[in-house]
Design goal:
Layout lengths: L4 E6 L6 H10 L5 E6 L11 H13 L10 E5 L4 H7 L4 E6 L2 H18 L2 E6 L9 H9 L13 H12 L4 H5 L9
Length: 186
């Protein structure tokens, strides 16, 4: 009998509790899941591959064990997600859906992936508490100097700690994003 392997791919920049919620729901559906940390050329990265991979590994290690729950591994990859899925022998891609807007774009991508790579997509609707959570929103709040500590209900503590460190580091891209170079603070 063939093992059912799924790829849950994304930039996870940063990983959120919404991502972990989708991952938790998927664990009962597959034999094994690979959380693939990819690169989206349309989005500037806040955290490096190594940082995103390390945070994801830490959070995956904290997932509950269970005989009926799929083990999860974490791997960073470059290139197309469908190529990564084929290399891993995956039968499906997992995509989290927050709302109808997500669904429209994800359906188009799912049909393309099926046509190009013969890989099916499984949509998992995130819990209501995370319906408005996005990595982009988290980056924006942190980049504009927002109090990231107030995001603890939607972002794991390890991510909050890293965001706070970036906000206080004058050499970080996040620190630079939070300050307008054209305004004199004096």
């Amino acid at each position: 009998m063939k093992e059912h392997i799924a790829i849950y791919a994304g930039s996870f920049d940063p990983i959120t509790n919404g991502h972990l919620d989708v991952l938790g729901r998927a664990r009962g559906m597959f034999d094994r899941i690979v959380l693939g940390i990819g690169h989206n050329p349309d989005k500037p990265s806040l955290f490096s591959f190594e940082e995103r991979e390390a945070m994801a590994r830490h959070l995956v290690a904290e997932l509950p064990d269970g005989s009926n729950l799929a083990p999860v591994s974490v791997q960073a990859y470059r290139g197309l997600t469908v190529d990564f899925a084929r290399e891993r022998g995956a039968s499906a891609l997992i995509r989290g859906i927050r709302n109808v807007t997500d669904l429209a774009g994800e359906c188009q991508l799912a049909m393309t992936n099926r046509q190009v790579a013969e890989v099916e997509t499984v949509f998992i609707v995130t819990g209501e508490a995370f319906a408005f959570t996005s990595s982009g929103l988290i980056r924006q709040i942190a980049g504009l100097g927002g109090d990231v500590d107030r995001l603890r209900h939607i972002v794991p503590d390890i991510v909050i700690d890293r965001l706070q460190a970036l906000q206080s580091n004058p050499d970080s891209t996040l620190y630079t994003m939070a300050r307008d170079q054209h305004i004199d603070d004096s």
